[in-house]
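User: I'm putting together notes for a lab meeting next week and I want to include a structural view of one of the chains we've been expressing. I don't have a solved structure, so I'd like a prediction I can at least talk through. The sequence is below, exactly as it appears in our construct file.
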Amino acid sequence: MAWFLLVAAGLLEIGWAVGLRCSEGFTRPWPTVGTLVAMAASFALLGLALRTLPLGTAYAAWTGIGIAGTAAFGMLVLGESVSVLRVASLALILIGVAGLKLAAGST
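Assistant: Thanks for the context. Below is the predicted structure for the 107-residue chain, given as structure tokens.
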């Protein structure tokens, strides 16, 4: 259950990172509200996951999901540059997250 909460928190991190862009510096009300709600929910779920998971593992996985997901969103949806190096680097991040999960066990 803790890993489910952590993945959900990571997905919400992607949402608030994208929301930051859509809010245009917090000048657009609804994207700003959505961003703040996603931030709060992401932090809350991370906090719940930390009840069971080790801090270093949970935080690294949370940020890894957010980093990889946000970068992938930028490339796939926003037309940011795609290169072999960028994709390989994102794959390494995801491999690291998977390794952290394996190292932490199936908590």
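A couple of points you could mention at the meeting. Residues 3 and 49 are 7 Å apart (CA to CA). The mean pLDDT is 94.

User: Perfect, that's what I needed.
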